[in-house]
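Long-time lurker, first post. I've been practising inverse folding by hand and with some scripts of my own, and I keep getting stuck on stretches where the structure tokens seem ambiguous. Below is the full token string for one chain I'm working on. Before anyone asks, I'm not after the true native sequence, just a reasonable design that respects the backbone. If someone could post their per-position residues I'd love to compare against what I wrote down in my notebook.
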């Protein structure tokens, strides 16, 4: 079973991702703050795709990525941001620029898992 982690504070993005993975064979975990993200760490595994917003309450995508890379080096990390990829302070495995569609989310996950 694939674990999908979403760290995002925009409700519309959370709803989109929730709807995208509902009914699929995935364990979906969501956090809206850095504290919630840290609370989820014990339940995570290396077979994970994490969608990380660049700016959320108490933290950043770069901070969350550093924690995940050290604890789960095989996890695939996706930055979700309104910024352009070239302006990110870290190097994600994939990038989704807001706004994005469910099809883009699924294509990103498929590309990461097959690539």
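-- Answer (accepted) --
I ran through it position by position. Result:
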């Amino acid at each position: 079973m694939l674990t999908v982690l979403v760290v995002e504070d925009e409700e519309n993005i959370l709803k989109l991702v929730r709807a995208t993975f509902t009914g699929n064979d995935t364990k979906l975990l969501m956090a809206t703050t850095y504290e919630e993200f840290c609370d989820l760490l014990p339940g995570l595994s290396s077979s994970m795709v994490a969608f990380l917003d660049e700016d959320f309450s108490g933290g950043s995508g770069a901070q969350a990525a550093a924690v995940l890379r050290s604890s789960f080096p095989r996890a695939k990390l996706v930055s979700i941001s309104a910024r352009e990829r070239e302006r990110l302070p870290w190097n994600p495995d994939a990038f989704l620029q807001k706004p994005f569609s469910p099809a883009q989310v699924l294509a990103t996950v498929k590309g990461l898992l097959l690539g």
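A couple of notes from the structure itself: The longest strand covers residues 2-7. The longest helix spans residues 102-114. Happy to go over any region you disagree with.
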